[in-house]
Structures are given as structure tokens and as C-alpha cells.
TrEMBL record:
The keyword Signal applies. This is Protein angel homolog 1 isoform X7. Residues 1-25 form the signal peptide. Keywords: Signal.
């Protein structure tokens, strides 16, 4: 074996594949009658910021620890292709793909590997962008949205970031009458500026609104829809922007803008810039629930008529008062004692004003710690420090409770594996990033999911 191959193999071994199957046991209840047998569809998703060469060359101070050789584009290109070939993800989401390099060099190779690619360049003078590539033997593309996160006349949306939102239909061979739940795959690379979390949050709201729109279009035709949201969010774990994605709610009014992403600690500032409500002007047509406002919703009801809309009244149906059986109402099991189906509740209605919400129920494929330890993982590393800024979020399978006994897991994706990340120390022992093995200043993230497919 050639020495360089040997070194490569040894170093690739640093990243361990973790099987997570079996951690989410299905409660042992018989299937509801009427539902046929389920089959499963397994697929992998990679999110990878491949470091645009023009950005590398524009910020040499970030790569002073690197040998010249590992910074040459032709060398890095080979490494990036090798990384993709090693793991062959079913869905590949790229950030910082330089347009000319993507179109002339990466896409032809990806095409030969069986991928169909969608690319969106950043606006303005930026020459990199995002791409989503999927194995066309495994998915059928139902829709595509290419988003520009710059909007004229909106103070917080004045930067050149973009996003891609695809709706993919799994193609299954097991049985032709079984088509899997569609999967909405979204990727973005949010603004870098560590001081401007307000802009990152506004950009994220735009992406979530498009995802919500795709999900709702599916639901309108009676189909569930799963979500994978990944990319480089330029935000740290557990900081407000991250918490917003995971919990579905963020009270943002008054937050210092640096704190939203937590990328840099500016707590020493006595008069920090803060974000104030409303985050986005109503003219943008996106409400605090990260949903597009339809013309119908903005219309005010004719005067003297309907004071409360049907939508408003529907929101009240599960308020605590509405769920309590009045004392003099006879108990009819299953009717007057029923608590609402958790899934049917409307979790995306903001509890407070000055809050943004979404109802996508997202979990992170990574825990941000090396499994079983308290050592922090990182997804990127520059001359100064390592950090986690890249994520794969997915709509997780949740427990749906009907009455006291019937507990069933509902819809959602089950994560069944991931490629472990590394710690900052691990990466420094490999001479930092990029190096001979890892061709970008980010590591790839790779997660494997299982989708249960019921007959239509
Ligand atoms: O942090 V990044 O790298 O997600 O890996 O995203 C941005 C930064 C990317 C696109 O804007 O370019 C990098 N200092 C350090 N890195 C920078 C800077 C900067 N001033 N500006 C852009 N980037």
C-alpha cells in the first residue's frame, strides 16, 4: 500500500460511524386496524461547507497553520470528491460551492455518480453558493425553491445569502403502490458577521417560511411531509438562534444582536446593538409564526360582522378551559374525557408578542459532544479556534397520545446513524483544517434516517 493511502486510511479512521438504531423503541401496541404493513426507506444526508477558494484566498490569516499544498484548489477538489465518494450520501447539501468550480468541476463528477444537482449562487458580487444534490434513482423531485434572502426595503434582509428548499419523493422498489412520505430538504449558509445575529435570525425566518409553505402544500393534499434542514448557520449550539430552531419559539425583543448566534462574546459592550420587535416589516408577508400571510388573512373582516375569525376560534379549542369537562356534563368515555391529540395542537401560535415561532418539531442529528464524553465536537476550525456552526436538523418521530392507553409514535424520521465529528484537539493533532485528509475548514456532517412508509 502506498504511504499516502495508508496515512489517509489511518486518518479517516478518526471519524467513527455511529449506529443509533434501536434507541427509539416503538411502544408495543397493535397497529390500528385499516393500516397496512409498513415498509421502511433508509437514506443518508450529508451537509458540507467545502470552503470557496476565493474566500480562502481572501482570508489568508485564517490558514497560516496550513502547508501551501493543502490550500491549492486542485488538491482540495480531489479531497472533496473523495469525501463524497467515501460516504456516497443519498442527499448532499453543499455550502460555499464556488460557482465556476461547482459547474465546471464538481457537478460533472456528481452527475457521473448518479446525482441530480440544484445550485443557487449568492447574490451580488459573491461567487459561491449552496447546492442540493440527490441520487435520482432514490428520489423524485416534486418542487424546488431557490431563495434569495436579500429583500429590498427590509433593514435586516440586506445581505447576499441564499437557500434552497427541495421537495423530494422517495422512490421505493418494494411495492409500486407504496410511495413514501415526501421529504422537504432545505439548506442554507447564513450570514457570517458574528455581531449581526438579528440578520441571521431574519434570514432563518425566511427559510422556515418557505419550508412551512412546502409542508403545508403537502398537508393540503392529505400528505404528511418530513423535514431535513441543514447547512452552516454561523451560530453556536444552545444560543438563541439554535434554541429557536429546536424549541420552535424565541422571545427576541431586546436581545443583544451578538448574543443571538453566540459566535463571539461581546458581553463587555456597555451599549450593545439590540434587536427590537417587529423583526420583519409586515409588508414582507411573513408573520411571527414563520408563515407566509395569504391575502385572505391580511384582509380585515367587514365591519359589524365577524369579530373573531374561524382561525382565531380554532386556536382556542385546546386552551385549558376548553379541555376541562364541566361538572354537570355526563362522562361519555372517549368523548367528553378526550384530551387533544398532541400532534393536532397548534404549537406554532406565539404565546407572547415579540416572539417568533415555528411548528416543524426539529431535532439535531448531532449532540455537540463526543458520544459518552463531555468533550465538545466541532464542525469547523480556523487559525484561532474551533466551533460548531453546521447542523443537520430533522423532523423527529414523536409520541402521539390518544387517551390513556393508545400511545403511538407518529410520522417523522428516525435517526439511525451518524458520522462522528471530532474535537478541536483531534483536529490540531492533524495540523488543523484544511489538512491532507480533510480538504475544507469544515468537516462534513452525515446522518442516516429511516422513514416508515405506509400504503397510500
Ligand atoms: O464562518 V464560515 O467562513 O461559515 O466557514 O462563513 C463565512 C466565513 C464565509 C462566507 O461569508 O466566508 C468566511 N473573517 C473570517 N471569515 C470570514 C470573514 C471574516 N471577516 N468574512 C467571511 N468569512
Amino acid at each position: 500500500m502506498k504511504l499516502c493511502t495508508c496515512i489517509r486510511l489511518c486518518l479517516v479512521m478518526w471519524r467513527v460511524w455511529e449506529d443509533l438504531d434501536g434507541t427509539q423503541a416503538e411502544p408495543s401496541v397493535p397497529p390500528t386496524t385499516g393500516q397496512g404493513p409498513e415498509s421502511v426507506f433508509e437514506f443518508t444526508v450529508m451537509s458540507y461547507n467545502i470552503l470557496a477558494q476565493y474566500l480562502l484566498e481572501g482570508h489568508p490569516e485564517l490558514y497560516i497553520h496550513c502547508s501551501d499544498k493543502v490550500l491549492v484548489w486542485s488538491t482540495r477538489l480531489k479531497g472533496i470528491i473523495q469525501e463524497i465518494k467515501t460516504w456516497r450520501p443519498d442527499i448532499l447539501c453543499l455550502q460555499e460551492a464556488q460557482e465556476i468550480h461547482f459547474q465546471k468541476q464538481l457537478q460533472p463528477v456528481l452527475s457521473d455518480l448518479g446525482y441530480t444537482c440544484v445550485y443557487k449562487r449568492r447574490t451580488g458580487s459573491k461567487t459561491d453558493g449552496c447546492a442540493v444534490c440527490y441520487q435520482h434513482s432514490r428520489f423524485f423531485q416534486l418542487s424546488v425553491s431557490l431563495l434569495e434572502l436579500r429583500r429590498e426595503g427590509c433593514e435586516l434582509l440586506d445581505r447576499d445569502n441564499v437557500a434552497i428548499v427541495l421537495l423530494l419523493q422517495p422512490v421505493t422498489s418494494q411495492s409500486p403502490d407504496q410511495t413514501g412520505t415526501p421529504i422537504c430538504v432545505a439548506t442554507t449558509h447564513l450570514l457570517f458577521n458574528p455581531r449581526r445575529g438579528d440578520i441571521k435570525l431574519a434570514q432563518l425566518v425566511m427559510v422556515l417560511a418557505e419550508v412551512d409553505n412546502v409542508v403545508r402544500r403537502c398537508k393540503a393534499i392529505g400528505r404528511e411531509c418530513e423535514v431535513v434542514l441543514c447547512g452552516d448557520f454561523n451560530s453556536f449550539p444552545n444560543m438563541p438562534l439554535y434554541q429557536f430552531i429546536k424549541t420552535g419559539q424565541l422571545y427576541y425583543h431586546g436581545l443583544p444582536t451578538w448574543m443571538i448566534s453566540g459566535q463571539e462574546d461581546l458581553s463587555h459592550q456597555t451599549h450593545p446593538r439590540r434587536v427590537y420587535a417587529p423583526l420583519l416589516p409586515s409588508s414582507l408577508g411573513i408573520n411571527d409564526n414563520c408563515q407566509y400571510v395569504t391575502a385572505k388573512q391580511t384582509e380585515s373582516p367587514p365591519s359589524g360582522k365577524l369579530k373573531y375569525s374561524q382561525g382565531f376560534l380554532l386556536q382556542l379549542r385546546y386552551c385549558p378551559g376548553a379541555c376541562e369537562r364541566p361538572r354537570d356534563l355526563a362522562l361519555i368515555p372517549g368523548v367528553t374525557d378526550n384530551t387533544p391529540d398532541q400532534h393536532e395542537k397548534q404549537p406554532c401560535t406565539p404565546t407572547f408578542s415579540n416572539t417568533v415561532c415555528h411548528c416543524l418539531n426539529l431535532s439535531s442529528a448531532y449532540s455537540h459532544f463526543i458520544t459518552g464524553t463531555d468533550r465538545q465536537e466541532v464542525t469547523t476550525l480556523h487559525s484561532n479556534a474551533g466551533a460548531t456552526v453546521d447542523y443537520i436538523f430533522y423532523s423527529a418521530r414523536t409520541e402521539r397520545i390518544r387517551g390513556q392507553t393508545d400511545k403511538r409514535l407518529h410520522g417523522g424520521l428516525e435517526q439511525i446513524g451518524r458520522l462522528a465529528l471530532l474535537t478541536e484537539d483531534d483536529l490540531w493533532s492533524l495540523r488543523g483544517l484544511p489538512n491532507e485528509v480533510f480538504p475544507s475548514d469544515h468537516l462534513s456532517l452525515l446522518a442516516k434516517f429511516k422513514l416508515r412508509i405506509s400504503p397510500l
